[in-house]
Design brief:
- There is one protein chain.
- The protein has about 260 residues and is α/β, with parallel strands linked by helices.
- It has a single domain, classed as Alpha-Beta Barrel (TIM Barrel), CATH 3.20.20.
- It has 11 helices and 8 strands.
- Bound molecules: 1,3-dihydroxyacetonephosphate.
- The site of 1,3-dihydroxyacetonephosphate has 14 residues, from β8.
Length: about 260
């Protein structure tokens, strides 16, 4: 049985007051909800991780980091290690987001090191992969996805499929309002699951949650969740508003 994950990636949004207001709204909104297999996660910026972790202690709601260093510790000004994040009690950390790849020149190899650092710390990576519009138009989406999987997952030991989450985020769909259709996303998710079955085994592939990200909102989530290999969303803009986030949690609860 796979988890259905509604994960908000806040990117560089919200100050302290806004984070507090969101926590208050969400805590009230989640009260009494039977989540079943649905796992709500929010990834705020570093300064607010501890606050949110405290706020939701003992609840099924999870807090994630948006990135981490690949180094364990030392002279890396501005960086935060996976063990530091894990010491807050965090269980999840996004790695390989396309914005890190594009603006911080992160290679598949760097991302692989981050995946290993996150897993070594005891947290689960939410590993992002996805093609650009140019690559899609050039007909090389499959090749890019497989290269990213091979590069970021080389030597990564996964046994049950519960140690890691994958997120397919086509770059052309991020923040553009133009989401992949259910069919377009499903086709890539199917390939990813096949790759997992080939590289590891079918049981593991069947257990591992694969999220779709890119302009997900309450209006298109149902269509995406209807696809057999889509197990939730990694959501930017539409996760910032508590009402919209709770609506997506509700859609997931009622859907699968
Ligand atoms: P949007 O939902 O704003 O398109 O962002 C998607 C994303 O990048 C989540 O990581």
């Amino acid at each position: 049985m796979r988890d259905i994950i509604i994960a908000g990636n806040w990117k560089m949004n919200k100050d302290l007051d806004a984070v507090r207001a969101f926590c208050k709204a969400i805590a009230g909104g989640l009260k009494g909800k039977v989540l079943g297999r649905v796992l709500p996660i929010i990834a705020p910026t570093y300064p607010f991780l501890a606050l949110m972790q405290r706020e939701f202690a003992g609840s099924p709601f999870r807090v994630a980091a948006q990135d981490t260093s690949s180094h364990p510790d030392g002279a890396f000004t501005g960086e935060v290690s996976a063990t530091m994040l894990a010491s807050l009690g965090l269980q999840y950390c996004i790695v390989g987001h396309s914005e890190r790849r594009a603006y911080h020149h992160e290679s598949n190899e760097t991302i692989r090191e981050k995946v290993l650092a996150v897993m070594d710390s005891g947290m689960k990576p939410i590993l992002c992969i996805g093609e650009t519009l140019e690559q899609r138009d050039g007909g090389i989406t499959d090749q890019v996805i497989l290269e990213q999987l091979d590069g970021c997952m080389r030597g990564v030991r996964v046994y049950t499929g519960k140690e890691l989450i994958l997120a397919y985020e086509p770059v052309w769909a991020i923040g553009t309002g133009r989401n992949a259709t259910g069919e377009q996303a499903q086709e890539v998710h199917r390939q990813i699951r096949k790759w997992l079955a080939d590289q590891y085994n079918k049981e593991l592939a069947d257990n591992l949650s694969i999220l779709y990200g890119g302009s997900v909102k309450p209006q298109n989530l149902t269509e995406l969740l209807a696809m057999p290999d889509i197990d939730g969303g990694l959501i930017g803009g539409a996760s910032l508003d508590p009402e919209s986030f709770l609506k997506m949690v509700d859609i997931a609860i009622n859907y699968k």
